[in-house]
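question for whoever is on the cluster today: can someone run the full assembly for these? two chains, 678 residues total. i dont have access anymore since they changed the login thing
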Amino acid sequence: MLQIKNLHAKVEDKEILKGINLEVKAGEVHAIMGPNGSGKSTLSSVLAGREAYEVTEGEVLFNGKDLLDLAPEERANEGVFLAFQYPVEIPGVSNINFLKTAINEKRDYNKQEPVSAKEFLSLVKEKSALVELDAKLANRSVNEGFSGGEKKRNEIFQMAMLEPKLSILDETDSGLDIDALKIVANGVNKLKSPENATIVITHYQRLLDYIVPDFVHVLYNGRIVKSGTKELALELEEKGYDWIKNELKV
Amino acid sequence: MIAELTKKDLIIEQLNALTFHAENEHFKTLRQAARTALADLEFPTSKTEYWKYTRLGKVTNKTYTAQSAATVDPTPFLIPGLDAHILVLVNGRFKAELSSFSSQPGVTVLALQEAKTASRTAFTKHFNQYTVQQGEIFMELNNAYHTDGIYLEVEKGIVAEKPYHVLNITTGNQNIVQPRNLIVSAPDSQIKLIESFVTIEAQESFTNSIAEFYVAENASVEYNKIQSFGPDNYQIATEQVYQESNSRFTVNTATFNGTLMRNNLNVEVNGTYCETNLGGLYLGKGKDHIDNHTVIDHKQPHCNSNEVYKGVLDDESTGVFNGKVFVRQDAQITNAFQQNNNILLSDNATVNSKPELEIYADDVKCSHGSTTGQIDDEAIFYLQSRGISKRNAINLMINAFAKDALEKITIEALEEYINTKIEARFTK
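^ ran it for u. tokens below:
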């Protein structure tokens, strides 16, 4: 599904990604872990198409298409979803109106008819229940006045509504208490299928107790320096990132 | 010795071609008083504080003629789905054959010139009352040379069933158009109006309009103004409002473009327990210049006023907002809120925003604020990352920004019409 080959990227002339290689297949869950400043968020931003990041080398294929050649909205409509670390508040734009616009643009992109009002409402009802998101929040302005937990649940709610092929969860666990974490993880797990894939980007192992990865990669200084199975995350938690740093020095 | 003619003299010379023989002495005297006042007034320069940010050169340097009404098709300017009385003015003259309205007991609808002939008591009492001796040249020009307009009177306790849509159409080149309305709402009455200003194949035409409003005790008036001129036309629009106790006055001004648009909105709140709502939205593009000057004068206690003006300025356009709120010494327990927010869509767009409060009472709650910014790029990216195109993302954001400026509109079809116009504007 996703192939990242020798990806280099910089922001404001500072090289952050220094040759990332990663392959994600349908049905898989990959965790990318790494200390602060290792390039985790840069990777998610580059994949989603944030403007400030410049790719200097390498390529990213998504179902055979050159992802880097597409505008952010085209990437989304191809099936890439980024759950933001810091979801943006948009006063005045209602969550519902926003989602309806998004779903219809996606349908239009795929040459499908717009969603009917009835179909849309039943989708909202079904999917908001998945992340235990209060129906009232769906009618409010996007993320405005939402608590940290509500914002993250709203991300997963949007993910559920848009049914992406590849979901990238950028530090979705940050700022969540254990109950909210369980709800969010539960939502993600329910959305998992043999056809879609998930990349979980996180600093801590904690989230991976609930969203169990097939593969764990350690990102350090702009490169993936170690890959393994879920046991790697546990080892990392136990020994800390210094372990990786020391190992690299040897 | 022959004195050189000023720009004002040249314009007046043209206007003197207009004749008003049919008017009675009372109305002739009013016109004459205005002509006398004009002798001592000159067009303002940017040194005049009231006109500091709006240079009038392109308006006052022209030679205008006051052209007669042409036959035009008003249908493209009607509001879809709106059940309203339609009153059409072409070049400042009422056109009965283009209008469609029915009568309702207790509501008087007359062309202004008819109202003068009919000499209705309320008309004669209030006409020209709120524009007299204000020392403002454009007001006096209209006082002296207005052609026609609409008179609406709602009698005591009457609720006007349908809104009245006054549609002003300007045609022709370098045409000077001076329409004038008077709205008198008696105690306990209610009325809703829409006034739109449009052009058909007009070039460098100048509309200098006035509307006067008298809002009696416990009466309620909603006035919605839409300015949607073709390029290279100018308007100076003045509204003079007088509120008695327990009355409500709401005005919403939507300006969609204008080479030079200036709105002077003055509300005198001379009663207790009044409510005044001023909403404004202005969208500038190209070299548009849109100026809103508002004054709310609180003279009595226990009144509330709310003012929200929002601007979206693109290209090299300029927005001007000057909102003045007076709270006089007697106006205790006044709540006055005012805000002006602007979005600049281009590096070359400009906003001059000047909120002003003058408070002489001590037990009041007043606030004012002004912001000017750009569309939040992070929000645009967020919307894009959900599959929404950049254009639609900007559109969603602008609509969200603009929405609450005109939230006091209670006519649903009008609200939809304005939203459609906003959307069309930003869907490139």
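summary bc i know u wont read the tokens: The CA atoms of residues 210 and 291 of chain B lie 16 Å apart. The first helix of chain B runs from residue 7 to 15.
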